[in-house]
Amino acid sequence: MLIVNSKQLPANANKDSDMYMYVKEYQDCIADLKVKFPTGEIALKRNGYPKITKGFADDSMAKGMPEMPTPVIFKLTKTVNGVTWGYCKGRPIIQPNGLVEVPPNDNSETFSNLIERIDIRSNPDFAFFVMYKSNLIGSHFTIYDPEGDKIRKLTENNDKLKVQFAIREGMDEEKLRMVCQSMEIKDAAKKNILILQEELEKKVFAMEERKKKEPTNLMLKGVPEFLAEIKNDDVTRPKAIIQFGIDEGKITFNPKDSHFYFDSADICYVPITRQSDRQDYLAFFLHNPENEQKWKDILKGLITIEYIDSMDKYGARWLAKQCGIPLNKKPEELITALHAEFTQAE
Q1: pTM, two decimal places
Q2: Would you put residue 17 in left (φ > 0), alpha (ψ -120 to 50) or beta?
Q3: I need a surface site. Which of 16, 73, 191, 280 has the fewest CB within 10 A?
Q4: C-beta separation of 130 from 85 below 8 A
Q5: Where are the domains of the chain?
Q6: pLDDT tens for each residue of 27-79
């Protein structure tokens, strides 16, 4: 059984219960483990082993033999972010006030094998504690899955090739510059194409590495998100416009009051929790129908005839849609309508 802050973790809890968030965390984690380990078994390999003994001068037979791993003893209670989790493998101590705890003489477990195996189906509580609360993963053990590791490596290589092809072969110049702007690469409208390709590739792979290092940060994006976003004009083009506005010095962020401004006009406040990805937040804010007029004002204050003429037919259709111009026109008619719209804005 699992214990959280001296209370037994129930099987379920309603949203008003003080245990709800812990039950939800447990259920989500177990569901995730079942997806990652469809056989129902987790295999953990001891870090740094097998080690090969150097042997002794009078014992040549021992030389070159693999050493047995030293035992790893770990506590079955752990405080994580101010919350104390415990795994009780036997009968817990129940206090007169109803609080429960792991017996002191039963508050540890020992792993002494090169490969330790945990059955998710028969002991999900122990699997949860070891994988998410014990701090064993990474410090003493790594997940042992040779076939899965090979597949993941091949998938990574395949995704890398997809990114390289998309950047170097799958986009024309206008599309590449627009995607670079959407990825917050500065002055993408002016830089040499080869330099832009290199900067974009490095940025995408750096994002992927950070995402791997912080798997619990769901806000981070990597290769799959990049490949999906470049196919979606409604995601990339607004962010490209925002970066264009920043490059032109018209859209600014004031860290003192955490507000974005267009020229001197206030656009929005950015919460502290979103300032690391504030341009994404601004794009999300301006996508809200309630802020449609602010978005149109920004477009009319930024877009020039030269900018319109640099857009491909897809960009022209997207911009016409933002302005409410009917799309049932020939490409040249659409450009003419956009010229009229933005000439009038000037």
Answers
A1: 0.58
A2: beta
A3: 16
A4: no
A5: 2-144, 146-232
A6: 999 999 998 888 899 999 999 888 876 655 455 445 667 788 899 999 999 99
